[in-house]
Amino acid sequence: MDVRVERRLFTVEEYHRMAEAGILSEDDRVELIEGEIVEMSPIGSRHAGCVNRISHWFSQRVGRRAIVSVQNPIRLGRRSEPQPDVALLRPREDFYASEHPGAEDVLLIVEVAEHSAGYDRGVKVPLYARYGVVEVWVVDLLRGVVEVYRGPEGEGYREVRVVGRGEAIAPLQLPDLHVPVDQILGETS
Fold it and tell me: Residue 80: how many CB atoms within 10 A of its CB?
C-alpha cells in the first residue's frame, strides 16, 4: 500500500513567527531553504577560523564600498532565508536593520565547508543561482580549494572554476580586492 505524504512548506513570514512564538530560538542552528527548516552542521574550529579570516580580511579592505555580513540571513523569495558564512552587501544607511538583504543586495556570498561541501554545492549554490546572486565562493577546507561560481543562469552558474593555494581571486563587484587563497585557507588546511 502506497502512502502519500505531503510536506508542509513554510514561508519566511511563518518561519519568523515561529521564532517570535519561541518555537525556534536564536540558538537554534537552522535556516529556511525552499520552505523547509534545515538544521545546519555544527561549526568546527577550522570552519570558524576560516570565517574569521575571511571576514577580517574583507573588513580591513572594503571600507564604505560594502558591508561585511557574517552568518546573517539573506532573503530569497517567499520560502528561503539561508545564512551564508560571509556575505558582502551593498552599503545601506540602516545596515539592513529594517529588513534582511535580498539577492539584489549581495555582491558576494562565501560558504565555508568543512564537511558540508556536497550540500553547499548541490543545494545552496543552485538556490543562489535561481535567485540571481551574482557570485558565490565555496571554500572546501577538506580539498584545500575555493570554488568560484559566477554568472547565475537557471539552477547554476555560467562560470565555475576552482582556485588553489598560490592563487588569488577578486570578487567581480570589487575587482581590486585580490584575496590570496592561502589567506582564506590559512596555514593548517
Answer: 24
Q: Are 86 and 179 in contact (CB under 8 A)?
A: no
Question: Confidence class of residue 126 from pLDDT cuts 50, 70 and 90?
Answer: very high
What is the separation of C-alpha 169 from the centre of its chain, rounded to a whole number of angstroms?
17
State pLDDT tens for residues 139-159.
999 999 999 999 999 999 999
95 grid coordinates: 545596515
Task: Report how far residue 140's alpha carbon sits from residue 113's, in angstroms, rounded to the nearest whole number.
Answer: 5
Q: Which domains does the chain have, with CATH numbers?
A: 43-185 (3.90.1570.10)
- Strand 135-140 and strand 106-113: the pairing is parallel
Residue of 47, 61, 57, 1 lying closest to 183 (CA atoms): 57
